[in-house]
Write a structure and sequence with these properties.
Among the domains are: about 110 residues, no CATH class; about 90 residues, Roll (Chitinase A, domain 3). The strands form 2 sheets. It has a 4-stranded antiparallel beta sheet with strand order 4-3-6-5, with helices on both faces. The radius of gyration is 29 Å and the shape is elongated. By secondary structure, it is α+β, with helices and mostly antiparallel strands. The relative contact order is 0.10. Helix content is about 50%, strand content about 15%.
């Protein structure tokens, strides 16, 4: 069989159950209703059409196109055959195999549940408009073309910044180009897109100006020079509406998951004696103090 991309998670969750069950006379995806339309029968096992639909959606295939339908159907059939092989060989008796199947089922169920959280949430246009206005306000009114020298140590950054006070920045940039951690030019960048300290320093500069003191961030020490400042023309609400909706729906789903975590009663067991013994056996022997 040709090497394939990973099995779509939603489909994996359905087929994981089937791989642990006997295949004769059963349907693929035992968690599905029994009266669903059947797309094919493989060795007496009915395969519901909905599994093909899920696979096609995950693979971005159009089932109305014969070649793409055949491709999806072949892949699904292979999964059913492998599931049947696992059953006939009784692979589920191996705890490691059964655990791998189970973790895929849990992963698929979790992701499908998060998708349900997203699809069931309601976000109206007034909420989207408020978020849009907040994003535009944070974006600022200007965008910058600038060059940056980034250093691992403050001493070199101070030297470069000092040189830039008496020389054209282009000369300083070329001089430190191979010695700096990074030497790069950026175009049409807004301060809000940068780490806060760097964004604030950029917003304080006018065209032709260079930071007099290096700016320190988690990435190192920055010496920046602004080449041009231009007005920022934001996308319209209609252009950003769908992406904002997706972001907010994702946030709402995450909030529901966070609530489940906070409400859950979870008791974590200590490692078993056998696990602890195994760990101690694999630990390197310590030398005696003597």
């Amino acid at each position: 069989m040709n090497h394939r991309r990973p099995l779509p998670i939603a489909l994996a969750a359905l087929l994981a159950t089937a791989s642990l069950a006997a295949c004769s006379g059963q349907r693929a995806g035992n968690a599905l209703p029994a009266d669903l339309p059947v797309v094919e029968t493989v060795n007496g096992q009915d395969v519901p059409q909905i599994l093909l639909d899920v696979l096609a959606r995950e693979r971005n295939l159009d089932l109305a196109v014969p070649e793409q339908r055949a491709r999806a159907l072949t892949e699904l059939t292979d999964y059913i055959l492998l599931s049947q092989a696992a059953s006939s060989e009784a692979y589920a008796r191996d705890p490691a195999f059964a655990a791998e199947v189970e973790i895929n089922r849990l992963r698929g169920t979790a992701n499908a549940t998060l998708a349900k959280f997203r699809s069931s949430a309601q976000v109206d246009d007034s909420v989207l408009r408020t978020e849009y206005n907040q994003q535009i306000a944070r974006a600022g009114k200007s965008e910058y073309d600038f060059s940056q020298l980034l250093f691992d140590n403050e001493d070199d950054a101070l030297k470069a910044a000092g040189e830039a006070m008496s020389k054209p920045f282009a000369e300083v940039f070329d001089s430190w180009n191979t010695r700096a951690k990074q030497a790069r030019a950026y175009q049409r960048v807004r301060p809000g897109q940068l780490p806060p300290a760097l964004g604030a320093a950029l917003a304080a500069l006018k065209a032709g100006e260079t930071t007099k003191v290096p700016v320190h961030t988690e990435f190192g020490w920055h010496v920046i020079h602004v080449g041009a400042v231009s007005p920022f023309v934001p996308p319209t609400f209609e252009q950003l509406k769908d992406s904002i909706r997706e972001t907010l729906l994702g946030q709402l789903a995450d909030q529901r998951l966070a609530k489940l975590r906070s409400d859950a009663k979870v008791v974590t067991n200590s490692p078993t004696a056998s696990t602890a013994a195994t760990a101690s056996e694999t630990k390197p022997a310590e030398k005696n103090a003597n």
